[in-house]
Design brief:
The structure holds two protein chains of two kinds. By secondary structure, chain A is mostly beta strands. Helix content of chain A is 0%, strand content 51%. Chain A is globular and about 35 Å long. The termini of chain B are far apart. Classes of the chains: A mainly beta, B mainly beta.
């Protein structure tokens, strides 16, 4: 059983296009995330989202928008793709609270390698 | 703001012990994670420390000193499969019941025969 899944695994597209990456988790977690990992392998948070709040990293361009149709899904939509958007994008999920103790271990999806030409 | 520092690369010999250090500066500290990431794969959870002291889990141990803003990951009896990047990540309370995980740039460990 796949805990956190992403599609597609590879995405190659032209500059200026609009694309979406889908993410689903079957762990019953209440919070989902999107990360970007660049060529230097630096993993950087883009968004975190639960049913209460969307937290956006202020450095993320507004061309990127998360969309959550339900608690188990958090899709990433990217408008007007640029060369610098090429990276691996990871979705993750976690349960924020359990028995009054913070349990924030994040489970990561397999990643989507985006290449913008 | 936050600042997380860890060495960029380390090399160690199979069977040996290696310690990977992480120092951090953050407000609203709520714990520190270590993740392992093999090339081309997703990060996977190794350990979580929220109180000072050592947490041991098999060949891996993680230590935290909150007053010093310091943690280390200790890997014993190194195996070739331990060659990977090790990511230090700090949990910060970001308000309204939400928590953020900020990653360091990772330490690439190479285990040699």
């Amino acid at each position: 059983d796949t805990a956190v899944s992403q599609t597609p695994k590879y995405l190659v597209t032209q500059m200026g296009n609009d694309k979406s990456i889908k993410c689903e988790q079957n762990l019953g977690h209440d919070t989902m995330y999107w990360y970007k990992q660049d060529s230097k392998k630096f993993l950087k948070i883009m968004f975190s989202y639960n049913n209460k709040e969307l937290i956006i990293n202020e450095t993320v361009p507004n061309r990127f928008s998360p969309k959550s149709p339900d608690k188990a899904h958090l899709n990433l939509h990217i408008n007007s793709l640029e060369l610098g958007d090429s990276a691996v994008y990871f979705c993750a999920s976690s349960q924020q609270w359990e028995d009054s103790r913070v349990v924030n271990e994040q489970f990561f999806g397999p990643g989507t390698r985006l290449t913008v030409l | 703001g936050q600042n997380i520092d860890q060495p960029t690369e380390m090399t160690a010999t199979e069977g040996a012990i290696v310690q990977i250090n992480c120092t951090y500066q953050t407000s609203g500290f709520n714990g520190l994670f270590w993740y392992q990431q093999h090339a081309g794969e997703a990060p996977t959870f190794l350990s979580y420390n929220v109180l000072d002291g050592l947490e041991e889990k098999g060949r891996f141990s993680s230590f935290l000193s909150r007053s010093k803003g310091y943690s280390y990951l200790l890997l014993k009896e190194l195996q070739m499969k331990d060659s990977a990047s090790y990511l230090c990540a700090v949990v910060r309370y970001s308000g309204a019941g939400s928590y953020q995980l900020t990653f360091g740039k990772g330490t690439k460990l190479s285990v040699i025969p």
